[in-house]
Specification:
This protein has 210 residues and is mainly alpha-helical. The protein folds into two domains: 156 residues, no CATH class; 40 residues. The chain contains seven helices and two strands; from the N terminus they run ββααααααα. α1 packs across α3 and α4 runs parallel beside α6. It is extended and about 70 Å long. The N and C termini lie far apart (57 Å). Keywords: Coiled coil. This is DUF3102 domain-containing protein.
């Protein structure tokens, strides 16, 4: 049977204008295409990924706006009937909602927002003076990674502690180490539980073979 030229592997299909439309907080949002197709050059790859990356940013802002709208509309049941059933946890929901609200309040223009929602959250929760410092350093930009903003926030924290003297620095370092120890303890408990479960499986398997 003859194969249509358009169906041959590698042939680029005409992309639909919109795979589907979501209306979020009175705003139409196109969901990204899911198919993979051949691209003619390296520049095409970069351009296509750039478009999808921009779509990802627009999507997390739209989700945040929807959450903000829903929180106001369903105030009595928002946490129980909406947040608890989302495919991400409460912390992520809080970050998405906060970013969207800050953008809509004009605190950080959408065009200057980092494309990562985690980086965007760390940026928009800076105090106004700190945000201005971040802007002067070129951190208020779409390409800014979360790690750069975290380093900036840590630098600000160190400066504030230094202004209160060495005792404050030492106390903060102690608190940081205590936090690391606590996280490591919880991780050890999880590993120990997994190991115990694995050992029980080994014992059961040997018992069945006997």
């Amino acid at each position: 049977m003859a194969i249509d030229a358009k169906e041959k592997w590698g042939a680029r299909k005409a992309a639909p204008k919109r795979a589907s439309i979501l209306t979020i907080a009175h705003e139409d949002v196109a969901t990204p295409r899911s198919e993979i197709f051949a691209l003619a050059s390296e520049d095409d790859v970069v351009q296509e990924i750039g478009k999808l990356w921009d779509t990802a940013q627009r999507t997390f802002l739209s989700i945040g706006r929807l959450l903000s709208h829903a929180e106001r509309q369903f105030r009595g049941s928002f946490e129980r009937d909406i947040v608890a059933k989302l495919p991400f946890n409460r912390s992520v929901a809080h970050m998405l909602r906060t970013v969207a609200e800050k953008v809509d309040q004009g605190y950080v223009p959408e065009a200057e927002l980092p494309r990562s929602y985690a980086a965007a959250f760390r940026l928009v929760t800076l105090e106004p003076d700190a945000l201005e410092q971040a802007r002067q350093r070129g951190l208020v930009a779409p390409g800014t990674p979360r790690s750069a903003i975290e380093r900036f926030r840590q630098e600000l924290r160190t400066q504030r502690l230094a202004a209160h003297g060495e005792d404050a620095l030492l106390a903060a370092k102690r608190e940081e180490l205590q936090g690391k120890i606590e996280r490591a303890r919880k991780e050890m408990e999880r590993w120990s539980a997994e190991l115990a479960g694995l050992e029980r499986q080994i014992i059961d398997a040997k018992a069945e073979e006997a």
